[in-house]
Amino acid sequence: MPVIERVVSGLHPRRLALLQIHFCVVLWGFTAILGKLITLPALGLVIWRMCLVVAALALMRRVWLGIAAMTVKQRWVFAGIGALVALHWLTFYGSIKLANASIAVTCIALTPIFLAVLEPWITGKRFEPRELWLAVIAVPGVALVVGGVAPSMYAGIAVGTLSALLVALFGALNKCHIGHHAALSVTALELGAGAVLLMLLGAAWPALGPVFPVLDGRDALLMLLLAFGCTLLPFALSLVALRQLSAYQAQLAINLEPVYAILLAIPLLAEQRELSLQFYLGVALILAAVFAEPWVRKDAAGTVSTQTVGDRSS
Predict the structure, then answer these.
(1) How far, in Å, CA of 45 to CA of 37, rounded?
(2) Which letter, b or e, does each residue of 183-206 get, where b requires 16 or more Cβ atoms within 10 Å of its Cβ?
(3) Which contiguous run of DSSP H or E holds residue 230?
(4) Is 5 among the domain residues?
(5) Does some domain include residue 307?
(6) Could you tell me the residue range of the domain that residue 152 belongs to?
(7) pLDDT band at 176 (very low <50, low <70, confident <90, very high)
């Protein structure tokens, strides 16, 4: 459309990149909403999502070339990281099914707190004691969140917190190993290995539900939106946007993901009826710690490295 093209062409590249990254974060925020709307159990939902993304990536020749360029050891490393990605998505959607989308994304907001402790241990970077104050801010927030929901949702909070821990683990490991490997190839390898792990897990533990549940028309449409509209599309757009943004700018935008998800859950899922003011006060404290994280890390001068799809919390 000529009007849109003129507007876009008139934007400064960095401003356009900011718009792109915020659009990506909104799309990522929809993953929790779609996870609640799709009626499949968490295991089947994640396997379908992973397999659809991997199938799309497998059609790209450069993905195969990137995998072929890796050593056998590197492939096994990324396959192992993919297992953590799979378990993260399983617990993330499990948290949504056990509680709701707002609780799941609130738990994921705890990821920077875990990273403050885990990243120095995994990557060898210098430990910054100042980062511990993030946990000090977040702890009363978590207490308010727990006290602001029905006891029936406590299991969802526990599973969601485990999901945040897994994000921190595989995020730090990816940072150690991705190097100059092609992000699409790493993503395909990690998600492919993760899907295989979940299939084996489902076969060994039938209580998790069917490995490949049959999709009705509604679930099939929502699954396509989840896999392509909320995974591949924002991933591709973010790769372009991140070339123009500093780590500080990107981190502030990405930190908005739980905010967008919670705001979307109000009109789309009416979750505010299930949650109290105490819950939202707890969310505010946790997000205060999350938004303080870029200042504490003092990464504003750096540039953002390419991420894999698995680096997304959702």
Answers:
(1) 11
(2) bbbbbbbbbbbbbbbbbebbeeee
(3) none
(4) no
(5) yes
(6) 40-212+244-311
(7) confident
C-alpha span between 272 and 119 (Å, rounded): 35
Would you say residue 24 lies in a domain?
no
pLDDT of residue 132: 67
Examine the pLDDT at 2 and tell me if it is beyond 70. no
Q: What is the distance between the alpha carbons of residues 110 and 87, in angstroms, rounded to a whole number? A: 17
d(C-alpha 261, C-alpha 128), whole Å: 30
Which phi-psi region, left, alpha or beta, contains residue 298 (left: φ > 0; alpha: ψ -120 to 50)?
left
The reply to whether 223 falls in a domain is no
Looking at 56-65, 129-138, 140-149, 207-216, which range is the least confident one?
129-138
Per residue, the 3-state secondary structure of 74-96, as one string, reads HHHHHHHHHHHHHHHHHHHHHHH
Backbone CA torsion sign across 267, 165, 142, 113 = negative
Compute how many other C-beta atoms are within 10 angstroms of the C-beta atom of residue 22: 16
Both tokens assigned to 17: 């990149």
How is 92-132 classified by DSSP, letter by letter?
HHHHHHHS-HHHHHHHHTTHHHHHHHHHHHHH-PPP-GGGH
278-306 burial, b at 16+ Cβ within 10 Å, e below that, comes to ebbbbbebbbebbbbbbebbebeeeebeb
Q: Would you state the pLDDT for residue 248?
A: 59
Through-space distance between the first and last CA atoms of the chain, rounded to whole angstroms: 32
- Lookup: tokens for 33: 């909403």
Report residue 309's pLDDT band, with 50, 70 and 90 as the boundaries.
low
Count structural domains, the chain. 1
Residue with tokens 């999709």: 215
